């Protein structure tokens, strides 16, 4: 169950970042503000997830790798949000 929550937070973070970024881009028709808000939301969700994983895991290597994977996921999700929003921006023009 714990592993399901661990990977579920990554998927939730991706979905929420994309939805918030897309909705804000529709409202403002700008690019960087929706990207930054989606990316900062991504950092907040996975940052809280990192703290949760670090506090609940007992093995030191698992703690370190879990937080490292969340940091890698932050970067990957940021790139995905950037690409999706730029494609949506090009299609709207």
Describe this structure in words.
This protein has a domain of 62 residues. Helix 2 packs antiparallel against helix 3. The chain contains three helices and no strands. The chain is elongated. It is mainly α and 93 residues long. The model has no long low-confidence stretch (mean pLDDT 94).
Key descriptive features of the protein:
93 residues; 0% strand; mainly alpha; transmembrane helix; membrane; elongated; transmembrane
Distance between the termini: 45 Å
**What's the main sheet like?**
none
Shape: elongated
β-strand amount: under 5%
Please outline the helices and strands.
Layout: H1 2-28, H2 32-56, H3 60-92
Transmembrane segments: 6-23, 35-55, 67-88
Keywords: Membrane, Transmembrane, Transmembrane helix
What is the gist of this entry?
This protein is mostly helical and 93 residues long.
